[in-house]
Amino acid sequence: MSDAPTRVARIEAALRAAFPDAHFTLIDESHLHRGHAGARDGKGHFRLQIVSAAFAGLLPLARHRRVFAVLKTLMDTDIHALSVDARTPDQA
Fold it and tell me: Residue by residue, what is the 3-state secondary structure of 5-53?
């Protein structure tokens, strides 16, 4: 049985808690990486598109760092790779 739905729910819950105004799309791309060394340890590959006012005034790298800081625990347990596209509402 796959842990993917639970994993996605945990990631989404962490993002909602940290960025309550955010609109985001989280895509589980783990199926594209079957057999990949990182996938064998049970962690997933994800693509995140997130729009939040919390990113205003931040450069892209700082935005990514904010997202990764929020997901740090899940990076250790659930996420092998995460692609992030973080924007402000006026960039959406």
Answer: HHHHHHHHHHHHHHCCCCEEEEEECHHHHCCCHHHHCCCEEEEEEEECH
Quick one: CA torsion of 77, 16, 50, 32, rounded to 10 degrees?
30
Question: What pLDDT is stored for residue 87 in this prediction?
Answer: 98
In the numeric block, the tokens 């790298």 are attached to: 61
Do 21 and 35 contact (CB within 8 A), yes or no? no
Tell me if 11 sits within 8 A of 71, measured CB to CB. Answer: yes
Whether the CA torsion 73, 74, 78, 83 is positive or negative: it is negative
Question: Structural domains in the chain?
Answer: 4-19+36-91 (3.30.300.90)
Full-model pTM: 0.85
